[in-house]
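User: Reviewer 2 asked us to show a designed sequence for the structure in our supplementary figure. I'm pasting the structure tokens here. Could you produce the per-position amino acids so we can include them in the response letter?
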């Protein structure tokens, strides 16, 4: 599509891409994860006050760095 020098042909290619996307994309991400909470023991140290919303929590906070 980008390498096509003829505008009308490039437009046709773009329409084909949009048509394929319409048929194959089953879900569009239009929402974010809900607010979540967690309970942490007072014996745990080096635990952040908040965590980024991610489907792999608490992974991004590096739990291997928590200490007792």
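Assistant: Here is a per-position design you can include in the supplement:
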């Amino acid at each position: 599509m980008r390498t096509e020098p003829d505008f009308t042909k490039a437009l046709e290619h773009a329409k084909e891409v949009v048509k394929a996307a319409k048929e194959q994309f089953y879900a569009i991400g239009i929402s974010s994860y809900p607010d979540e909470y967690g309970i942490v023991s007072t014996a745990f140290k080096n635990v952040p006050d908040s965590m980024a919303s991610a489907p792999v929590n608490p992974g991004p906070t590096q739990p291997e760095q928590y200490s007792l």
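For the response letter, you might also mention the following. Residues 1-31 form one domain. The mean pLDDT is 80.
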